[in-house]
Each structure stands twice: as structure tokens, then as C-alpha cells.
């Protein structure tokens, strides 16, 4: 997807040459801003009016804040201390007010002289610092401040009504310093190249980009802000959708082999074996996939569905259709446990149809091979041979499938499971193993709101499975407040014992493995292997105790509340063979309680498991809790999920758990998740470590803008795929698609 090189414009000037190296260094390190254009696109978070002061009563604890307030009084105290034993120590206490509340500022030592002269009663200023508590009163210690002086000729009314932009800032760089830096670069906004085609901009009545940038940073009225925001949101939505539309266009031009299942072939034989009929949803989605497979362009489809909606069955039928048509199909799983689990369930579902070339194999049978990094040399050699000769129609594996040594006879379909765990290079490396580009089916069990699907997976067609197969049992979910009501936790273990004594099994999930002070399972965060930080800022205080660990909890349960039951552990540090053995024993009913990390989050299918207790449930994200919960209630008996937490009732973390317990609708939960987290996390930025390219657009609130931008983008790309007539749009696209963002777009 080569972009025509754009002319270097004034907005690409490095900040170092405009603001000087020290300021530029702080902006680069703490805010990710490198050029004049980056700074111009660093928009204010909100605006204060000088005459309308912030509510001091609502200040959040332990956060860096900027407030506009008036000095009520200032007192200088002297005191004795180890550094000033003769009573020469000085402390300046300044009380500021905004009518809603009061806040104390404190300055010590040599730092008192300047504020003592400047912060006189009646003075208005902006103050910035971290909110703390001293003697049960809120305070800012040594805050930075900026006095608010009106110019001589400025009338009092104008001065009081002026809008002060408050920027996303850091302790190293206060909002007003960012404002001053913007004052320096703002004239450059006149050189901003407008990415929107003129007809589109005029048709929608939007202001030109230079005007929008001036109005967002130096608004005269609230209407200026609204006008600028509307325009800048459109830019973000439109440029992103153009990038995705160009990917779809380029993919549609690639050749592929049409794969149509033969009548009375492997697929028909498999369908005849099924002990149930497909749900309406499964039939509808299968038809969409088979229609795509029958075309001579590669399918690019996202299959998203609720936990337990039967996605694996739909994917397997697509794979069998491709084998019927003479090709091979590969399924890529994110972990060895999941690859082994898929291999086991696929061979069980297929029975004799998976025994191609073996005694007892059916006439239409093919071979199903497993390929993972930890396989023995002989088994690996045989698997590679079966793939190269075409003996194996289906292969299920981890990233070991992408190694250079792996050769396919005729790769026709790639199925990627839990796609967010794979980088784009891995996906493309596997696709590159076909003689022609293979068809691609991406499965995700995390329900995605429509707008996120359009924004993140915009180059894929989407199929949704939202029906659960008949016979699936309801799952009851409850929050167990272990700190407030310890007897609730004791009752939780009694419930687990009751399930086990009734012939069922249970999972206990913990955030950490334990043993050596580790910080989590490698399955906790696919990129770093470290436990993720608290999902909501401000919960750090409640995280002082280390998260509960599998090894400790298993030991405690086996010797205490669950004594006499068969308790085993499963986590990511175990050897693959040991993990598989544990899972086999659990699946066979030889273990009553499996204490595990999130390694069981996806794909593990044990219909006899009816209960799950999630320890320190507040340490997990909403969608992760929903995923975990989906491991129970997979048989005919009802499921039970208990979310154990020590977080206080009023905390956001506890509210999150209440929301999860209240609904089994994954789409509803994904909206809650998106509203509570930073946008960038949802859009893949947390995985790639880059800033989100969305600074103004909120994917849930701005659904209409995204949908309209997608339509406009498709029309623009259809008319001019290389954007030859739209140099401004090419420039904006080049800025979006630097190396890291190119990967983000491909959902790296």
C-alpha cells in the first residue's frame, strides 16, 4: 500500500528548532509530540472561563489537576526543624476558593519568597499540582501557578469571560506552558494542508482546517469550540476510514482460488455426523463465508460472537469446505494450551473423518495435524511432511506454523483465533505461504460494538453470531465482597464443594502464578507477559497487596475449605506436556477443582464444569471477566460465576463488577468497557504501545460520524484509489500510516 510521497510541509518542522531543545525533549518524552503538526493536534481537554472558577469540591485525590481560583488568604509561619533549629524554617499557607470549596496550598523553605509576594488575597491564578491530604484537608504542595492578569486595554468583562484552554499535561509540563508553546506555533496552522476534499467539506458545511485549528486553541466563544470539534472529529474519522477503504480496495484486486465444497464430500459427511442441527445464526454466517470462499478474490472476514456461540464449529465447516475443494486450511491459535484444545475438539468432532490414510479412517477422511514449538523432533518432522505433501488437510498450531521450514501443498484458508493476540507480521507470514493469497477468517470472542468494528476491523467484512446453541444453560453471576462480608467468601467455597459433590467441577481463577514474586502469567498480557495495571486510574491504593496467586490459593484450598476434593493447578509457566495432561484429567472428570490463571480464558471446553470463582476479580478487565465466565454453563446444568473482590462498594472497580454480574450480553458489556477505559486501549494502542491516533473522536459517542465517514471514504477511494487528485488527503494519510500506525491499522 505505497503512498505517493507528499511534500514536506511547515507542520513537519521539528519542535526542537521552534521551541528549543529542553522543551521539545519534555514534549517528546512525556506527551509523544515531535513536530509542529503534533503540537497543533494536541487539543485542549476542556476550557475554563476566568470568571467561572472550577469546583474545588470535586477534586480527585492523587491526580495532577489544573484549577482556576482566587486567593482568599495567605499566612507565613515560622517553625523549628532539623534543618532550621532556631525557628528559622518558613511555611507559606495559601487558601484559595472558587465558591464551591476551599483548597490549601503550601510552600516551604526558599520556595516561599516568590508566592509570598505574588499570591496576595484577591489575586486570581491558575494552579497545577497533585492533590493530597494533610490533616484531613485537601492540599497542593508546591503547586506551579500562573497569575491571570488582564491587559491594560482589556475590559473587565472581556477578561472575565475569556476562555482558557486546559491541555492534557504532565507534572513536567503544565497546561499553561503547553498553551504558551502553542502560541508560538499557532501561526503555522495557516499552512495546514486540508485533507478533506473541497466538495465534501462544503457539502457538510465545515470550516477549513486552518480555521478549525485556530478556533480549538484560541476560541472566542463556546460556538467556536463546537465548530472546531465537529471539523476535527470528521478529519480523524475520514482519514482512518480512507486508509481502511484503500486496504479493502487493494485486497479486492488480489487473485485467489475459488473454493467450493463438492457435493457428498467431507463437509456433507461431517454435517451428517453432527448430533444437533445448526442454529439459524450459524447457518446464516456459514452461508456468508461459503459465498466468500466461492469468489476469486481472498475472503477477509471477521467472525465475532458471544462466548459459546459455536464459532469454532462454523470455522471448522469452512475449513472442511476448503479441503473438499482440494486445498488445505490452517488454524492459528495464540497459546499452546489453546492449540492443543482446538486439535482435541476438532478430532473429536470429526471422529473417523480425521483419520485420513489410517486404518478405520472414513472414505472422505483427511488428516488433522498439530504443530507447536514444543513438539518432539520426530512428531514435528512427520507433521511438516504431511503438510508439504498435502496428506494433512487441516493443521492447527501456534506461531510455529509461520516458521520458514513450514511448507504447504496448497494453503487455501487461514483461520486466526483470538486475533488481537497476533502481530500483523505473523498473520501476513502465514498468508504468504499460499501459492496465491489464501482466504482469511478472523475469529474473536470479544463482542465488539459496531463502531469499534468499523474503526478497528474496517478492512474486514463482519459476521456476528449472537445466538447461543440450544441446551446451553444460563450462568448466574454474583459479586462476593470479601472485605465487607467475609462469610460470603466462606459460603462461596461451600457452593464449590456442593457442585463437586453433585458430580460437577469448578474453576478458581487467580491473577498471578506465585512462588517467586512474579507479576503474572505470560497469558495475562500478550505483549509483555506482565500483569496489566489497574483498569481504572485512582485504584492504585487498593492494589498495595500483591494479587492472589494460583500456587498459594491452591495450597490454601486443598488444606482448608476444599480439603478432600481433588485440586490441581494450571498456569503458563508449566511445561506444555504437563499443561495438556492437567487439561485432559480435568476434561475427563478426574479433577474436581482447577486453580488456574487466565490461561483458561479462551477455547477451553469442559461441559461438566459448572462453577467459577474469580479471585481479585477487580484486577481483570470487563471483557476478560466475560470471557472467563463463558467457560462454565457449557453443558445442561446451570453455571455459577462468583466475582470475589476486596474493593469498597463505592469504587469504580466494584461498579464494574456489578455491571458484569448484571448482564450476560457481551455487546452491552463491551460498551461499558469502552466507556470506562481510555479509547486507545480498545483501539489496539495498549498492545502496540503507541498513542492512539484518535484525539478528538470517541468511538461510542460518534457512531454517526464514523458511519458517514466510512461511506464517504469508500466513494472517494472507488473514484480515485491512489488519491492522485487529493494531495492533502495523501499527506494526512502518510502521517497516519507511519510504521507503528500501519501495524495498528492492521490490528497488530
Q: What does this molecule look like?
A:
By secondary structure, this protein is α/β, with parallel strands linked by helices. The strands form four sheets. The chain has a seven-stranded parallel β-sheet with strand order 11-12-10-13-14-9-15, sandwiched between helices. Strands 16-21-20-17-19-18 form a six-stranded parallel β-sheet, with helices on both faces. The longest helix has 32 residues, at 222-253. Mean pLDDT is 80; it is low at 1-8, 151-157, 519-543, 678-692 and 739-748.
Summarize the structure.
The protein has 748 residues and is of the alpha/beta class.
What are the key terms here?
six-stranded parallel sheet, alpha/beta, 18% strand, 37% helix, 748 residues, disordered N terminus
Principal-axes geometry comes out as: globular
Proportion of strand residues: 15-25%
CA-CA gap between termini: 16 Å
Measured as a percent range, the helix fraction is: 25-40%
Task: Give the oligomeric state of the chains in this entry, treating copies of one chain as homo and distinct chains as hetero.
Answer: single chain
Task: Report the biggest beta sheet as strand number plus sense, adding barrel if it closes.
Answer: 7 strands, parallel
Amino acid at each position: 500500500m505505497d503512498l505517493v510521497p507528499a511534500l514536506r510541509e511547515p507542520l513537519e518542522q521539528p519542535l526542537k528548532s521552534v521551541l528549543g531543545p529542553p522543551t521539545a525533549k519534555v514534549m517528546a518524552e512525556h506527551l509523544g509530540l515531535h513536530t509542529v503538526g503534533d503540537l497543533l493536534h494536541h487539543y485542549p481537554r476542556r476550557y475554563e472561563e476566568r470568571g467561572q472558577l472550577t469546583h474545588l469540591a470535586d477534586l480527585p485525590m492523587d491526580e495532577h489537576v489544573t484549577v482556576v481560583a482566587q486567593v482568599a488568604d495567605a499566612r507565613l509561619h515560622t517553625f523549628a526543624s532539623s534543618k532550621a533549629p532556631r525557628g528559622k524554617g518558613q511555611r507559606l499557607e495559601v487558601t484559595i476558593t472558587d465558591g464551591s470549596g476551599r483548597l490549601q496550598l503550601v510552600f516551604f523553605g526558599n520556595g516561599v519568597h516568590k508566592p509570598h509576594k505574588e499570591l496576595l488575597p484577591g489575586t486570581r491564578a491558575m494552579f497545577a499540582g497533585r492533590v493530597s491530604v494533610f490533616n484531613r484537608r485537601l492540599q497542593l504542595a508546591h503547586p506551579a501557578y500562573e497569575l491571570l492578569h488582564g491587559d491594560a486595554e482589556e475590559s473587565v468583562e472581556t477578561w472575565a469571560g475569556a476562555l482558557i484552554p486546559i491541555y492534557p499535561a504532565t507534572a513536567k509540563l503544565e497546561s499553561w506552558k503547553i498553551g504558551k508553546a502553542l502560541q508560538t506555533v499557532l501561526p503555522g496552522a495557516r499552512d495546514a494542508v486540508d485533507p478533506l476534499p473541497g466538495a465534501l467539506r462544503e457539502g457538510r458545511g465545515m470550516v477549513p482546517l486552518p480555521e478549525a485549528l485556530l478556533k480549538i486553541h484560541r476560541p472566542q466563544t463556546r460556538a467556536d469550540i463546537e465548530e472546531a470539534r465537529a471539523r476535527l472529529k470528521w478529519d480523524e474519522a475520514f482519514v482512518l476510514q480512507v486508509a481502511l477503504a484503500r486496504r479493502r480496495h487493494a485486497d479486492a484486486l488480489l487473485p485467489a482460488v475459488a473454493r467450493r465444497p463438492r457435493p457428498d464430500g467431507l463437509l456433507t459427511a461431517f454435517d451428517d455426523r453432527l448430533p444437533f442441527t445448526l442454529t439459524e445464526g450459524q447457518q446464516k454466517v456459514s452461508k456468508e463465508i461459503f459465498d466468500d470462499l466461492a469468489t476469486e478474490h481472498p475472503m477477509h472476514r471477521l467472525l465475532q460472537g458471544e462466548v459459546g456461540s459455536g464459532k469454532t464449529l462454523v470455522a471448522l465447516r469452512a475449513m472442511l469446505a476448503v479441503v473438499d475443494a482440494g486445498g488445505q486450511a490452517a488454524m492459528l491459535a495464540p497459546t499452546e494450551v489453546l492449540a492443543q484444545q482446538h486439535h482435541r475438539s476438532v478430532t473429536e468432532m470429526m471422529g473417523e473423518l480425521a483419520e485420513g490414510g489410517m486404518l478405520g479412517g472414513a472414505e472422505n477422511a483427511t488428516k488433522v495435524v498439530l504443530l507447536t514449538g514444543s513438539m518432539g523432533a520426530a512428531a514435528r518432522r512427520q507433521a511438516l511432511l504431511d503438510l508439504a505433501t498435502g496428506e494433512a488437510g487441516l493443521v492447527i498450531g501456534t506461531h510455529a506454523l509461520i516458521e520458514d521450514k513450514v511448507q504447504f501443498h496448497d494453503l487455501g484458508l487461514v483461520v486466526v483465533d483470538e486475533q488481537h493476540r497476533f502481530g500483523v507480521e505473523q498473520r501476513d507470514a502465514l498468508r504468504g505461504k499460499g501459492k496465491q493469497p489464501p482466504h482469511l477468517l478472523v475469529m474473536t470472542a470479544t463482542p465488539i460494538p459496531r463502531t469499534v468494528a468499523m474503526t478497528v476491523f474496517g478492512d474486514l467484512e463482519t459476521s456476528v453470531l449472537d445466538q447461543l446453541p440450544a441446551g446451553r444453560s444460563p450462568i448466574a453471576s454474583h459479586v462476593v465482597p470479601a472485605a465487607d462480608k467475609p462469610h460470603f467468601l466462606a459460603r462461596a467455597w461451600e457452593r464449590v464443594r456442593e457442585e463437586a459433590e453433585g458430580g460437577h467441577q469448578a474453576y478458581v481463577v487467580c491473577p498471578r502464578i506465585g512462588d517467586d514474586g512474579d507479576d503474572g502469567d505470560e497469558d495475562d498480557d500478550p505483549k509483555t507477559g506482565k500483569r496489566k495495571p489497574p483498569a481504572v486510574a485512582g485504584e492504585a491504593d487498593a492494589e498495595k497487596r500483591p494479587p492472589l496467586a494460583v500456587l498459594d490459593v491452591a495450597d490454601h484450598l486443598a488444606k482448608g475449605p476444599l480439603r478432600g476434593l481433588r485440586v490441581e493447578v494450571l498456569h503458563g509457566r508449566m511445561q506444555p506436556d504437563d499443561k495438556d495432561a492437567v487439561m485432559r484429567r480435568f476434561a475427563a472428570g478426574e479433577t474436581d477443582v482447577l486453580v488456574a490463571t487466565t490461561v483458561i480464558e479462551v477455547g477451553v471446553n469442559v461441559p461438566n464444569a459448572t462453577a467459577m470463582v474469580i479471585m481479585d476479580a477487580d484486577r481483570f478487565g470487563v471483557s476478560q471477566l466475560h470471557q472467563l465466565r463463558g467457560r462454565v454453563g457449557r453443558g445442561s446444568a446451570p453455571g455459577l460465576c462468583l466475582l470475589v473482590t476486596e474493593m469498597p462498594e463505592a469504587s469504580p472497580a466494584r461498579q464494574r463488577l456489578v455491571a458484569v454480574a448484571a448482564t450476560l450480553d457481551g455487546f452491552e458489556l463491551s460498551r461499558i468497557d469502552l466507556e470506562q477505559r481510555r479509547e486507545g486501549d480498545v483501539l489496539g494502542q495498549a498492545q502496540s504501545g503507541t498513542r492512539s491516533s484518535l484525539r478528538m473522536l470517541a468511538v461510542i459517542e460518534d457512531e454517526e460520524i464514523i458511519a458517514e465517514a466510512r461511506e464517504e471514504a469508500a466513494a472517494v477511494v472507488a473514484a480515485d484509489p491512489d488519491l492522485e487528485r487529493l494531495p492533502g488527503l495523501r499527506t494526512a494519510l502518510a502521517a497516519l500510516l507511519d510504521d507503528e500506525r500501519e501495524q495498528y491499522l492492521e490490528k497488530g
